[in-house]
Specification:
Blueprint: H1 3-11, H2 26-33, H3 36-44, H4 59-66, H5 69-77, H6 92-98, H7 102-110, H8 118-130, H9 136-150, H10 160-169, H11 184-190, H12 194-202, H13 223-231, H14 238-264, H15 270-275, H16 287-297, H17 304-310, H18 316-321, H19 336-342, H20 346-354, H21 369-374, H22 380-388, H23 396-403, H24 423-427, H25 430-441, H26 445-450, H27 452-463, E1 490-497, E2 500-504, H28 505-517, E3 518-519, H29 525-536, E4 543-547, E5 554-555, H30 558-574, E6 580-587, E7 591-599, H31 607-611, H32 617-626, E8 631-638, E9 641-648, E10 655-658, E11 665-673
Parallel strand pairs: 4-6
Antiparallel strand pairs: 1-2, 3-5, 6-7, 7-11, 8-9, 8-11, 9-10
Helix pairs in contact: 2-3, 2-4, 3-5, 4-5, 4-6, 5-7, 6-7, 8-9, 8-10, 10-12, 11-12, 12-13, 17-19, 19-20, 20-22, 30-32
């Protein structure tokens, strides 16, 4: 993601199409990692947008698989082949669906990607062909395909009728076994595909066929699938069930150890683990297990909920510490939190809640976590949910998305930007413009919940007859109706703001109103905020050094930000024996971090005690002022342990993580999304 380095290399004549030994180009790497600006630079410099990795993957497939929506949009805009296929016939749409990136799926479909059902026919044909032989290569290929698409079948809108197409193509070999003795019905049960199970039963699949281990389909079944099989006449074998549980436990113990070892080693080459047949026991893993291992080692692709469903002894805290993503769901729609609630594992529930478990998720019957808690005799689940419910109310990305309506091409944009359109042709007249404005403003209703004070200011600026700041606003000045360009309207009474005389409505908008909703680079707003802090909030002999503040711009409630900073500097001023404060800003693709470090000063309490600081006092005030505006964490060192305590986090609520390096002093980091 080092844009300047990339530019310098291109300028120096570096080969933009150079590939590593695996055939991966710079554009593929940048797309996979989500470095939007680097992607733009490479495309602008002529990179082959549809170059393929040796297995046929393109930059668009990598970006889709990783879920980088903005990169996907850029590649599509630049002409990437949407329906390009890899060697197995997979497309970018399949890659996105594989990991549940719904926004990317929608974007690809909007751009013309085929949400076609013939992929299922392709799978069925592969299955049909593979069942004619015991060749492991073909069997692996079709199993991979089943998992590849069917694992996220809901994203393809695959229905029971689609499965019938599959079964029809299998009709002459519906009970054919592979080299492990498994039939399509057994695999459908193992993969927990209820619709497919129902279709196979209706098509006459034999229920009591045993695989080479002696297990029938019903031996692998549970829940509704088991009910369907029992209703169809399948009879479970109790001895088989006991054997299967022992078998499954041995596999889970072995799998978890191998996963843990691989994760600890950092993305060890899973390829070598599977290919080195002489030196590794992993060579015996089936294609299904191989694919699961691929997902496990690449942590972001793990379905945590399924792991909990498979193994009730899983160490939840350890998995969270390893960075396994939460808020996944099983095929029944159950989240990790729901599963732990069912198992009455309240300590593990709290670990998930601290990590930011989503309380709003619903299973496929429409039940949420509160419904699961209501089914328990014990009130502990309810108490935990109430305790952590407040952590969910932090949505800085959504907040910024709403305010971006003042930049996007909507009526809201033209309340803060010069008019470059003809009023009559676009809105008929001024009243038509205000009407369109009101309709669009309804989409900002969530802003009322996120930052109510800012919502009230915007609403008054747009629609109040009293307006803002000496009665100024779009509905407070009747004379605006007569102006061809309202920004040129001359105020009846000039305003004096910060020593500057404001005479035009457009000047008021740019120099006053926009400064309320955005830290703007043109007015050097960020530098001015910290100049104010330096003058008003520090002890006389304390010195603040600022760097990289210039040119930074982001939407926020500027007044709330100032108040939060004042509270932060109350604590800094109180420790006036530490004279130096360093303030810096760092911009990445989608956020800006503002770091405030009090050099040499550290809190002399543990991270657990520091967590309690937000329950009242200045830290509580800071948290409430910054809620929904930005993420907020502090960095500290205590008893030779350095840690980062996240008070506000977009996804995880409040949590603690270890730091590998000791900070220079107690540090506040505010992350604003852009």
């Amino acid at each position: 993601g080092h844009l300047e380095v990339v530019r310098e290399l291109i300028k120096s004549g570096a080969d933009i199409e150079a590939k590593n030994k695996y055939g991966v180009t710079a554009l593929m790497y940048a797309s996979l990692d989500g470095h939007l600006e680097v992607v733009k630079e490479l495309i602008k410099s002529g990179a082959d947008i549809d170059a393929k990795y040796k297995d046929g993957w393109t930059a668009l497939m990598y970006a889709s698989f990783a879920g980088h929506l903005e990169v996907v949009k850029e590649l599509i805009k630049s002409g990437a082949a949407i329906d390009a296929k890899d060697k197995n016939g997979a497309t970018a749409l399949m890659s996105a669906s594989l990991d549940g990136h719904l926004e990317v799926v929608r974007e690809l479909i909007k751009a013309g990607a085929r949400k076609d059902k013939d992929i299922m026919i392709k799978i069925s044909q592969l299955y049909h062909d593979a069942l004619k032989t015991t060749a492991s290569k073909e069997t692996e290929k079709i199993r991979a395909y089943i998992l590849y698409v069917d694992n996220r079948y809901k994203n393809f809108d695959i229905t029971k009728s689609d499965y019938k197409d599959v079964v029809m193509s299998l009709q002459d070999s519906i009970d054919k076994r592979d080299n492990r003795g498994n039939t399509p019905l057994i695999y459908a049960v193992i993969y927990e595909k209820r619709l497919l199970v129902d279709v196979l039963i209706e098509a006459g699949a034999t229920l009591d066929i045993q695989n080479k281990k002696g297990f029938m389909a019903i031996d692998y079944a549970s829940g509704d699938i088991k009910k369907s099989l029992r209703k169809a006449g399948a009879i479970p074998n109790k001895i088989n069930k006991i054997k299967l549980e022992k078998d499954r436990k041995r596999y889970i113990d072995k799998r978890d150890k191998e996963i843990a070892d691989l994760i600890k080693e950092g993305k060890k080459s899973y390829k070598n683990s599977f290919n080195d047949k002489k030196n590794s026991e992993l060579a015996i893993v089936t294609s299904f297990e191989y694919y699961e291992f691929f997902r496990m080692v690449n942590k972001k692709n793990i379905n945590f909920a399924r792991m909990i469903a498979d193994d009730s002894t899983l160490d939840i805290s350890d998995m969270i510490d390893q960075g396994i993503p939460i808020n996944q769901q099983t095929d029944e729609g159950k989240s990790e939190l729901m599963l732990l609630c069912e198992q009455e594992r309240f300590k593990e529930m709290e670990a998930l809640l601290k990590a930011g478990a989503d309380l709003s998720l619903k299973d496929y019957e429409g039940r949420d976590i509160w419904d699961y808690a209501a089914e328990l005799d014990d009130n502990k689940a309810f108490e935990l949910l109430k305790k952590y419910e407040n952590y969910q109310n932090h949505h800085p990305k959504e907040f910024v998305k709403l305010l971006k309506n003042f930049t996007n091409d909507t009526p809201l944009k033209y309340t803060t930007h010069d008019w470059d359109f003809d009023l009559a042709s676009e809105y008929d007249d001024f009243d038509g413009f205000i009407k369109a404005l009101k309709k669009k403003f309804k989409e900002l209703d969530a802003l009322k919940e996120y930052v109510p004070t800012l919502y009230e200011k915007i609403e008054a600026f747009l629609f109040s007859k009293d307006g803002l700041d000496e009665g100024l606003g779009w509905s407070a000045l009747p004379a605006l109706k007569e102006e061809k360009n309202p920004f040129a309207y001359r105020l009846k009474k000039p305003l004096m703001i910060d020593g500057e005389n404001i005479e035009l409505f457009g000047e008021y908008i740019k120099k006053v109103f926009k400064q309320k909703i955005e830290v703007r680079r043109e007015s050097e707003a960020l530098e001015r905020i910290f100049e104010y802090i330096d003058d008003e909030c520090l002890a006389d002999d304390q010195v603040m050094k600022c760097s990289h503040l210039k040119g930074k711009q982001f939407y926020t409630d500027v007044q709330s930000l100032k108040k939060a900073l004042e509270k932060i500097f109350v604590g800094i001023k109180a420790r006036k024996e530490f004279k130096e404060i360093e303030v810096s800003a760092k911009k990445e693709d989608d956020f800006i971090d503002i770091s405030i470090c009090h050099i040499g000063s550290f809190s002399d309490i543990s991270s657990e005690d520091l967590q309690k600081e937000v329950e009242d006092g200045d830290f509580y005030d800071i948290k409430e002022k910054l809620r929904n505006l930005c993420d907020w964490r502090v960095e500290n060192s205590y008893q030779e342990k350095s840690y980062s305590l996240h008070y506000l986090h977009e996804k995880r609520g409040m949590f603690i993580e270890a730091l590998s390096q000791k900070p220079k002093g107690f540090t506040h980091v505010l992350r604003f999304y852009i």
